[in-house]
Amino acid sequence: MKKLLLSLIAVSALAFTTQAQTEKGKFMLGGNVEFNSTKNNGAPKADTKFNIVPSVGYFVSDNFAIGTGIGYGFSKSHEATTLLPNAALKTQEFVVAPFARYYKGINESFKFFGQLSVPMAFGNNKVTTDGDNYTKTSKYSNVGVALSPGFAFFPSKKFGIEFSVQGISYNNNSLKDNNGNKLADSNKSFDIGANFFAPKIGVQFYL
C-alpha cells in the first residue's frame, strides 16, 4: 500500500509539472540561430549566412501562448567572374515574427502543438566589384504567413525539445531599387505540404 501511494504521488507530480509548463501566466523563451559557410569550387572565398531571432511568448490561457521573435540576418556571397574576380553581394535584414501557439497534451512528457506565425523581413542588398567598397543596389521586404505543426518533449519542467515541420505557408517578396521602383524579381509564393524527413529542431525554456 505504501509503495502504491508513493507511485501515485510521483505520477501526479509529473503530470502537474508538465501542465505547469504551459499553464496561464507562464513565459516561453526560445528562438532560432543559424550559421552556414559554403565554399564553391573556384570561388575566392566561402559564402556565409548568419541569422539570429530570439523569441518570447506568454501563455494567455492554459496551453495557448502568443509572442514574437525579433532578430537580425546577414549573408555574403561571392559572385566572382573572369572580368570581376572580387565581385560580391551582401544582404542585411531586420526580422520580426509574431506568433500564436496552441498545445494539446498527449501524455505527461509529450504535447502536440500548432503555430501560426507572420514572419517579416526588411533589408537591403549591397554589391562590390573590388571586394571592399559596397554600394546599395536595392531594398526588399518579405511578409509571410505560416502554419506549422509539431510536437514537444519535456525532459524537465523548465525545458522542452521541439520538432516541427512547415505545413502551409505564403510569402510576398517585394524588391525595389534605390528610387522606390518595384523590380521584376519581386514574387509571391504559396506552399502546401510538410517534409517529415527534414524537421526543424529547437528548444524552449518555460518560466
TrEMBL record:
Q: Where is the signal peptide?
A: 1-20
- Tell me the keywords, alphabetical order: Signal
Question: Outer membrane protein beta-barrel domain: from which residue to which, for each copy?
Answer: 7-194
Q: What is this protein called?
A: Outer membrane protein beta-barrel domain-containing protein
What species is given as this protein's source?
A: Pedobacter cryoconitis
